[in-house]
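We now fix the convention by which a protein and its fold are recorded. The integers have meaning only within a learned vocabulary of local backbone shapes. A record is reproduced here so that you can trace the correspondence yourselves:
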Amino acid sequence: MERHEQGSPLETITKHEMIVNYIQELPIGTRISVRAIAKELQVSEGTAYKAFKEAEAAGLVSTKERIGTVRIDRKRREAIDQLTFREVAEIVDGRLHGGIAGIEKTLQKFVIGAMELEAMLRYIGESSLLIVGNRKNVHRKALEQGAGILLTGGFEPDAEVIGLANELQLPVLSTRHDTFTVASMINRAMYDRLIRRKIILLEDIVTFTKPADVMHVGQTVEEYYALFRETGSARFPVLDDRGRVVGMMTAKDAAGADDHIGVDKVMSKHPITAAPNITVTSAVHTMALEGIDLLPIVDRHRKLLAVVTRQEVLDAMRFAGKQPESGETFEELLWTGFVLHSELGQEDASMAYSGKITPQMSGALGMASEGLLSTLMTQAARNMIRETCKRDFLLDNVNTYFLHPIPIESDVTIVAKPLEISRMVTKIEISIMDNKALAAKAILTAQMIDPY
């Protein structure tokens, strides 16, 4: 084996990859530590720590207080609405007593142990969580039914229950919070997951196992044209000898260049790339702003993972727009209660919405908060664009003016009037009126997108 001086970049990279590969081969549920891995593989703790961070980013391990670092299974986005027992422990500030091998299992439902044992067992099954106090007679029964246990009120399980939990690989957790508080915290977290499921990421729409058409440093313009004819594509990422994206080769770059010149001499350097966990909407915005049709997806070291085209991200946004709602965001909850006012806005294409300022919308002075009013005006503009153009927009700028405060319980009308709408941009004037006439006004400019 070729030898390198201690601390050289090549040695660090080799050891880093060796540690990540070692972690990947460990059984799911194995508890590991930086110090133990460093000793086992005879590397420095600093090198092991960097590899741990890379493994955590890749979804191979998870590190949590009171639990430690555990080898986990890479979570799938399809099950994003399902909480794992580890996440429950984090949500309720829980302590793990036993069953660590099952800490990454997902739970389909939770059951509050406030009924008689016989009735409770009808609701408990695999992939469920029993939330219960110091009812020792039900702890064993719940584990035997395939359920994890969360003890509330600061109670802790006895040694027999911990031993059974380890044997069955079902987590037993405890928390200082009461049962009602714990149920509310878990329910809110599951609801948040439903909202997140609506948000499509690049990693949801690309196939990382499908090899992308690429060029390499050292290839020539002549080889670019050959790849162009073979694939029908005119834009390719250029990779160095370690698989990192160092440029983009396009027909514009190749035009007029000698066939035998290297692509690294004429390519566009420092190309725009994206991480796999950014949203499709963000990718659309970037590609439209920069005028590019192909976006390389890279890891933190700029190694190529996949490529995505503008058509693919637009198709994904159209698909997302057709899906049923699975949860309401804060903005959507604020807009609840506002309805289209059919008597206004017929002549100038504006749309008016009427609703009430509720107590939950108040700010520090007992009036409607300025931030909330800005949100309502933006929501009115977005609804108008969706209704009239069947499109959506990415916000560029909002200039807002507040003329007088609006008391809570006030009935208001929000009018969105288009000043300019084109294929690329839109400008909208939004006004809020209460019984004292005009209360707030905004001018909104945005880039138009087509999710439908």
Q: What stands out?
A: Confidence is low (pLDDT under 50) at residues 1-12, 75-80, 323-327.
